[in-house]
Amino acid sequence: MVQKSKPPAAANQPESRGQPERRGQPKRRGRPRAYEPDVALGKALDLFRKQGLAATSLDDLSAATGMNRPSLYGAFGDKRELYIKSYQRYRDEAGAAMVAIFREEMPLRQRLERIYASALDIYLSGDTGPRGCFTVVTAASEAVGDPEIRAMVLDGLTGLDKAFAICFRRAKEKGELPESADPFALAQIASATVHTIAIRSRARVPRKELEAIVKGAIDVMVGAGTRA
């Protein structure tokens, strides 16, 4: 009997592109990422900023980012870690929006007006309504029981105080403020004004009313008689 020749082993055959895998061949493990981590983090940030940590579930985050739970854990860690990463992202973005205004040379009143206008742009943004400030509205609540978040909040608050203090000290050196002016005390008033418009914007106080609060605070800090 003539024995039929066997076809060459599959392992020795070149791969055929576009053909389905044959039975017996090991399946390829892993899947290409169907998401952009930076975009997903931005989605998580929006959700945490709106709802806070406790009120945001993993199902909420999965729906917002388009990632299932294992993918979320693999990319960002647990919910708390994702919250902290989101908060850091917010701080980086908010700081980048402000740093140029703090560094540019301009009269003190004009600088303060631009800082508060930029802050209002951030606080009043949101697809479903104003979201306020991540630090003041949500992170400050979590700071009560979480030392790491508390340290981040305190760092943000003191950093803002220091930035304002530098502005007032330079203004004093240029003669825009009287010799009796206390740059650090003025900085705390300036920071407190940031905090109050953050809270009020979250409560959907109209921008015109918030701008009136800002104007009054600037008049106190700079002097009602001085105009840029």
Give a description of the structure.
- With 228 residues, this protein is mainly α.
- It has nine helices and no strands.
- α6 packs antiparallel against α7 and α8 runs antiparallel to α9.
Fraction of residues in helix: 55-70%
Shape: elongated
Reported for the largest beta sheet, the result is: none
Task: Provide mean pLDDT, rounded.
Answer: 84
Provide a count of the helices.
9
Strand content: under 5%
Layout of helices and strands:
Blueprint: H1 37-51, H2 58-65, H3 69-76, H4 79-103, H5 108-123, H6 134-142, H7 147-173, H8 183-202, H9 207-222
Helix pairs in contact: 1-2, 1-4, 4-5, 4-7, 5-8, 5-9, 6-7, 7-8, 8-9
Highlighted features:
228 residues, mainly alpha, single chain, 9 helices
In short:
The protein is an all-alpha fold and 228 residues long. Helix content is 63%, strand content 0%.
